[in-house]
Specification:
Layout (H helix, E strand, L loop, with lengths): L1 E7 L2 H5 L3 H12 L2 H13 L9 H11 L7 E2 L16 E3 L2 E5 L7 H13 L11 E7 L1 H6 L9 H11 L7 E7 L21
C-alpha cells in the first residue's frame, strides 16, 4: 500500500531503526485491496452485521497484523485512576504508541492528545509511557475506495490539526496517510447515505 508521511517534531529520527516502526511499516506496505475486501466480506460469512464503509475492515486488519505474540499491546490503559480508565491507546510496543484512526473528524485532536499525554504525563502508567507516537489514517483516495462515511477525518485534516496544535504537542508524532489511488474500484462496501459513493 502506498502512503504519505508527516514527520512532526522529528519523529522519523526517533523511529528510523526502531523495531516497532520497521514492523509497522512492513504491515502497511503489505496491505492490498484483496486483503481489505476479504475482511469486509468476512463479516457476512460470519453472520455478523456488515459495516457499510471500510473503517471496520481497516481497523481489523491492523488488529490482526500486530499480534501480542510479537510484543504488541492492544488497548493499553493510560491511567490507573478508575475515573480515567477509558483512556487507552490502540497499540503500544517498546515505548511507541499507535493510534489507528478512521473516526469522525471531530475526534482528530483527541488522537494527538492521547499520544501527548502518554508521552508527557507524570501520572501515566509506567507500562504505558511512550517516547514517540504514530497516527495512521486514511487519505481521500482510501476514504473514497472503501466508501467510508463522509464525516471520517482524512490525512489532510490531520495535517491541519498538527499545525494548529504544535504549541501544545511536544511529543514527536509520525502521521501516516494510507492511499488507495492505484487500487481498482470495488463493490465490497455499501457506503452510507452520507458516505462517499465514488463508483455511483
Amino acid at each position: 500500500m502506498d502512503y504519505d508521511i508527516e514527520n512532526f517534531r522529528h519523529a522519523a529520527s526517533f523511529l528510523r531503526d526502531h523495531p516497532a516502526w520497521i514492523e509497522l511499516r512492513s504491515v502497511i506496505e503489505g496491505i492490498d485491496a484483496p486483503a481489505v475486501e476479504a475482511l469486509q466480506l468476512g463479516y457476512a460469512a460470519d453472520g455478523k452485521r456488515v459495516p457499510r464503509g471500510g473503517q471496520s475492515a481497516m481497523n481489523k486488519l491492523f488488529e490482526l497484523a500486530l499480534p501480542s505474540a510479537r510484543g504488541w499491546v492492544h488497548q493499553p490503559r493510560l491511567f490507573s485512576d478508575p475515573l480515567l480508565r477509558e483512556w487507552k491507546m490502540d497499540f503500544l510496543k517498546e515505548r511507541v504508541g499507535v493510534e489507528v484512526s478512521f473516526n469522525h473528524a471531530e475526534a482528530i485532536p483527541w488522537q494527538f492528545t492521547r499520544l501527548n499525554i502518554a508521552g508527557e504525563s507524570e501520572r501515566i502508567r509506567a507500562d504505558s509511557g511512550i517516547d514517540v507516537g504514530i497516527v495512521i489514517t486514511a487519505s481521500e483516495s482510501l476514504k473514497r475506495w472503501s466508501r467510508m462515511d463522509s464525516a471520517v477525518g482524512t490525512f489532510d485534516a490531520f495535517q491541519a490539526w498538527l499545525r494548529e496544535m504544535k504549541p501544545i504537542l511536544p511529543i514527536p508524532i509520525m502521521l501516516v496517510g494510507l492511499r488507495a489511488d492505484r487500487w481498482r474500484p470495488t463493490s465490497a462496501f455499501g457506503g452510507t447515505r452520507s458516505g462517499n459513493r465514488a463508483s455511483d
